């Protein structure tokens, strides 16, 4: 390895006033307000990573022929910083985000940022903007690392210049009025990812391609879309931007199942963590394949008792009802099930530091 990248620290001289920031933190919503600063690191062919800065949050200037605008070499990550009981701040498994970011970069023919630089960039921004980390339960500071091509030109090939950035946005409780199950639409027309495609990469293009299906779900009165596999259109893959879990059976004998990573699913860090947490709680777990008919029949005969989605932004979201062109059904009794609730509370307790962290998942920043 070469010498570690040195960051030039020039934070904002005019951060938002305590009073204005408090007004934002009173009702932060999601992704609407940003902290005072951001991190930027450049990469170019020949020079590699350079020009690492912490600087005031500000708009970017962009050439109309910026290659990202045309060919979408654009990847991102999402993780959260949580206030801890001693007043400090921790992130959750950021090295997993760093590694996934490297895998996404590889798939989109982009340069890989070293894991320690990724984590350090996030830590620097959190330390600088610590006042933006909420103190309220279930609130957090959402961290958005991302990278895109900055080379100017219309030739189709991997760009030879990129910009990595980290921005941060305070996030309110996802369910301020209590956990509310979502309704889902099984998308039989549109697919999210095909074998050999970019389904495993956290890239902007996957989201662009998903929006029309999300709109179709809304037209059918559903909150979210559930993706089926591209080939047979029957294997359950994931929900919107979250992974799915199925609870088979009930009580201590419940089995916690999630679709296996076939290359077309996004390998969620929440998904990975819940497999471990479920095991720690004594449940049987499994990565498996399940069709839409398995789901409908298992729901009808009671063998599938609960279904939930999981991801960093919304943690765990129960699925309350399902609709498709051919059938619709209520999942269990339509409310958040006991296993779903237990897993959600256990994960939140680890993240907020109110429960032990036996696997060393918390990364202390402050
Ligand atoms: C980010 C993401 C997830 C969830 O990943 P986490 O690491 O748990 O936040 C699931 N599906 C898609 C499509 C995603 O983009």
Mind sketching the topology for me?
Elements: E1 7-9, H1 18-26, E2 37-44, E3 48-56, H2 67-71, E4 74-76, E5 79-83, E6 89-92, H3 94-107, H4 115-128, E7 140-149, E8 161-171, E9 182-187, H5 204-219, E10 224-228, E11 236-239, E12 242-248, E13 255-259, H6 269-280, E14 284-288, H7 292-300, E15 304-311, E16 315-323, E17 328-330, H8 338-351, E18 362-364
Parallel strand pairs: 1-3, 9-10, 9-16, 13-14
Antiparallel strand pairs: 2-3, 2-8, 4-7, 5-6, 5-7, 6-18, 7-8, 10-11, 11-12, 12-13, 12-15, 15-16, 16-17
The structure holds pyridoxal-5'-phosphate.
Catalytic activity: L-valine + 2-oxoglutarate = 3-methyl-2-oxobutanoate + L-glutamate; L-isoleucine + 2-oxoglutarate = (S)-3-methyl-2-oxopentanoate + L-glutamate; L-leucine + 2-oxoglutarate = 4-methyl-2-oxopentanoate + L-glutamate
GO molecular function: branched-chain-amino-acid transaminase activity
Protein name: Branched-chain-amino-acid aminotransferase
CATH topology of the largest domain: D-amino Acid Aminotransferase, Chain A, domain 2
Main sheet?
A: 9 strands, mixed
CATH homologous superfamily heading of the largest domain: D-amino Acid Aminotransferase, subunit A, domain 2
Shape, principal axes of CA atoms: globular
Arithmetic mean pLDDT: 96
What is the CATH architecture term of the largest domain?
Alpha-Beta Barrel
Bound molecules: pyridoxal-5'-phosphate
Our count of domains comes out at 2
Enzyme class: transferase
Family: Belongs to the class-IV pyridoxal-phosphate-dependent aminotransferase family.
Keywords: Amino-acid biosynthesis, Aminotransferase, Branched-chain amino acid biosynthesis, Pyridoxal phosphate, Transferase
Protein name: Branched-chain-amino-acid aminotransferase
């Amino acid at each position: 390895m070469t010498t570690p990248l040195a960051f030039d620290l020039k934070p904002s001289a005019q951060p938002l006033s305590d009073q204005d920031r408090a007004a934002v933190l009173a009702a932060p919503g999601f992704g609407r307000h940003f902290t005072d600063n951001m991190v930027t690191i450049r990469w170019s062919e020949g020079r590699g990573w350079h020009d690492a800065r912490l600087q005031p949050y500000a708009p970017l200037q962009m050439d109309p022929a910026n290659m990202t605008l045309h060919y979408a070499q654009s990847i991102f990550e999402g993780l959260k910083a949580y206030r801890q009981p001693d007043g400090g701040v921790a992130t959750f498994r950021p090295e997993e985000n760093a590694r996934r970011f490297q895998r996404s970069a590889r798939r989109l023919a982009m340069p890989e940022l070293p894991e320690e630089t990724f984590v350090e960039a996030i830590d620097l921004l959190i330390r600088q903007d610590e006042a933006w980390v909420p103190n309220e339960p279930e609130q957090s500071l959402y961290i958005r690392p991302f990278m895109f091509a900055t080379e100017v030109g219309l030739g189709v090939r991997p760009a030879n210049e990129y910009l990595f950035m980290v921005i941060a946005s305070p996030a309110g409780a996802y369910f301020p009025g209590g956990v509310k199950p979502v309704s889902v639409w099984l998308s039989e027309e549109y697919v999210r990812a095909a074998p050999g495609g970019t389904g495993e990469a956290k890239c902007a293009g996957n989201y662009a391609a998903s929006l029309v299906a999300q709109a179709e779900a809304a037209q059918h009165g559903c909150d979210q879309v559930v993706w089926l596999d591209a080939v047979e259109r029957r294997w359950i893959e994931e929900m919107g931007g979250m992974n799915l879990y199925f609870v088979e059976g009930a009580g201590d004998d419940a089995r916690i199942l999630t679709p296996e990573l076939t290359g077309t699913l996004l390998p969620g860090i929440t998904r990975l963590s819940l497999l471990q947490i479920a095991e720690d709680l004594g449940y049987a777990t499994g990565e498996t394949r399940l069709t839409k008919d398995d789901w409908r029949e298992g729901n009808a005969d009671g063998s599938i008792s609960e279904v939930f989605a999981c991801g960093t932004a919304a943690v765990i979201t129960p699925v309350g009802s399902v609709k498709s062109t051919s059938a619709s059904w209520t999942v269990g009794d339509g409310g958040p099930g006991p296993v779903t609730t237990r897993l959600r509370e256990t994960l939140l307790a680890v993240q907020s530091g109110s429960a032990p962290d036996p696997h060393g998942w918390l990364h202390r920043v402050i």
